[in-house]
Amino acid sequence: MSETAPQSGNRTVHRTCTLCEACCGLDIDVDGAKIVSVRPDHDDVRSHGFVCPKGIAISAIHDDPDRLRQPMRRMPGGTFEPIGWDEALDLAAERLRGIRAEHGANAVALYTGNPVIHNHGALLVRAGLTAALGTKNSYSAGSQDTSPRFATSNLLYGSSFALPIPDVDRTDYLLCLGANPLISNGSVLTAPNMKKRLRAIRERGGKLVIVDPRQTETARVADEHVPIRPGGDAAFLLAMVGVLIERGRLPHSTLAEVTRGWADVERRIGALGREDLSRSCDVPVATIERLALEFADAPTAAAYSRIGICNNRYGTLATYATDLLNLAAGRLGKVGGAMFTTPAIDTAAFLVRAKQDGYARWRSRVRDLPETLGDLPSACLAEEMETPGPGQIRALVTFAGNPVLTTPNGRRLGDAISKLDFMVAIDLYVNETTRHADLILPPAWTLTEPHIDLFFGAMSARNIARWSPPVVPIGPDEKHDWEIMLALSERLGGGPTGIRPLDRALSAAKNIGQGFDPTHTADLLLRTGPYGDWFLPWSKGLSVKKLKDAPHGIDLGPLEEGVSRRVFHRDKLVHVDAPPLLEALDAFAGEVRTAAPDDQLLLIGRRELRTCNSWMHNVEALVSGRDRCILYVHPEDAERAGIFDGGVARMESRVHAGEVKIRVTDELMPGVVSLPHGWGHAAAAPWQRVAGSHPGISINDWTDDQEVESVVGQSILNGVAVRLGPCAEIAVASHA
Ligand code: SF4
């Protein structure tokens, strides 16, 4: 049984916040099972006392009366009633086994939401559950935000988790695209207190450049904001590389030493017309040339791109182009550039060794889209449920996910899910997706279990290791998420990891009284990792025991120089000529030459400090105050559409038409409108009373599941064509 918190007594628990990628340290004062207060941990080696409002509100989720605490079964009429654990697990397994036996393993799909990456227990058994289901229909939040980054890393470096991280604390020039780190606090960049870190760049004489269609909160504190057309990032970055090629600024000997196929890439990029690229991204040629030379001339520089470029039309190409720019300017693997971490638990190496990493090893049935890191694009989910034939999805298992709100054309997906033969959700809440589940198996809240990071070591601005103990005791009739997943796996004939020899060994160990414990597995990975003690009694290396003696974490130092040390290809070279990337480049070259300018409005998303995707809107402190779910429109577009500030307009896309509240603002470039994501809680109002009283609308009612990025099938959530008009003027469209 995994470690639990004491049932009684006052104590302060030092704990990593697992709500977002920043991984800040919290001091949580507890009296028995009651959280008394939450404060920043000033001694945390990563965050040094920084927290955001979400971290402080973590106790509100603990206390939320709407959070489920026992398994629920959906009754006729759509209400839920409690059911016992054994009965629920047996029923779930029986229904899934039956559907699998009748229709094949791919008839059962798995969808995993973003919180899994903050949970070492669930992460460790997720592959086991997928293997036990035996399905290729595995989906996750990754294809809404990060699949282009994972696939690019897999193709270039041989591991999806070989991730170039901007060395923000030592760089003199940060070029930032599609990211708003003042609000996100870093994404694929674990670096709390980005405000302070970005200010420090400027204080040491450096420069911060934000490239974004909106003058974001980060753009407002930057030295320069470059407005860019949504989807134009690939053109912009390739044009910058083209400038360096043309001006003879490439470090040719380094490129020959660390890459494979650079000459081929250079020839292709050199052939792209700069005027075409400039027109495609709406950034003047002179600005592109100036920024390229500034980037090359700065003492140190890093290009960093994130979600805003991942989930647009050229997400993979733009991610590839980001790495090409860092290479072309000699910035990859250099201090102050884009560097690789040395994680205490080396998930990249583990996944490569276990053959769990890859790209395009199988494809979706209906649209032939590739998997990335084991998951198919979520934009396929509805069609895979609706299209008859062998492999049609008839049952769904979700873990901590709400795809009806977070995937494109969410209304269509909601309809498709409601018609499935069976659905089981492992989730804390009845939400817009789980309301369709036949069974909901709620895990104990994450603060009841210990925490060690398996994921963010690959993307941290400094190398850090930290262990967090459980904060509050688990209830007598509660189960951790990994226990629920494992119980399901075992009932389906599988084991914890999905790796057969390992599962057999773990099963044998269970027979002699040592069941699977994720913390033991994490300890094994830590002790055999880059800083591990390798079980040598005299070693000063890391183990969980050693981390427990350092309650605020251990700082393992700044990122280390070098590229080949984090390249997992056998030849240790960066494969810049990987065929899928070159094909994407060639296809883009044809499109950019022939593209005609259009006058459509393009819808982009928006992130806000107090919200975390779709799932923290039942916390009053995070949703009270001004209405956040408002469409931002440039004054010229508002005038053209005949709509006004503070009013309501009708917005129409190919899949949906509906009403939106309007704010007219020049923080957007003309031709772009912006709505935050994660809202649209009206359907969950009976079960989430706070969220239901601040429902907002879902941007993914308008996004289109039939339009995906071409390399990995990433959902296009930025740059969606819409029309705006007064409420009466636009006809209602179907969402089919
Ligand atoms: S930024 Fe906020 S939500 Fe994210 S880890 Fe820090 S305290 Fe938690």
> Major sheet: size, sense and barrel closure?
7 strands, mixed
**Integer average pLDDT:** 94
CATH class categorisation of the largest domain: Alpha Beta
Q: What structural class do helix, strand and pairing data support? A: alpha/beta
Rg: 25 Å
Q: What is the CATH superfamily classification of the largest domain?
A: Dimethylsulfoxide Reductase, domain 2
CATH architecture of the largest domain: 3-Layer(aba) Sandwich
Overall structural domain count: 4
Distance between the termini: 48 Å
Percentage of residues assigned to helices: 25-40%
Can you offer a commentary on this structure?
This protein is α/β, with parallel strands linked by helices. The protein has four domains: 1-63, Phosphorylase Kinase, domain 1 (2-Layer Sandwich), CATH 3.30.200.210; 72-147 and 346-440, Rossmann fold; 161-343 and 562-578, Dimethylsulfoxide Reductase, domain 2, CATH 3.40.228.10; 598-726, Barwin-like endoglucanases, CATH 2.40.40.20. It contains 28 helices and 30 strands. Helix 4 crosses helix 23 (518-527), helix 6 (147-157) crosses helix 16 and helix 10 packs parallel to helix 16. The longest helix has 19 residues, at 85-103.
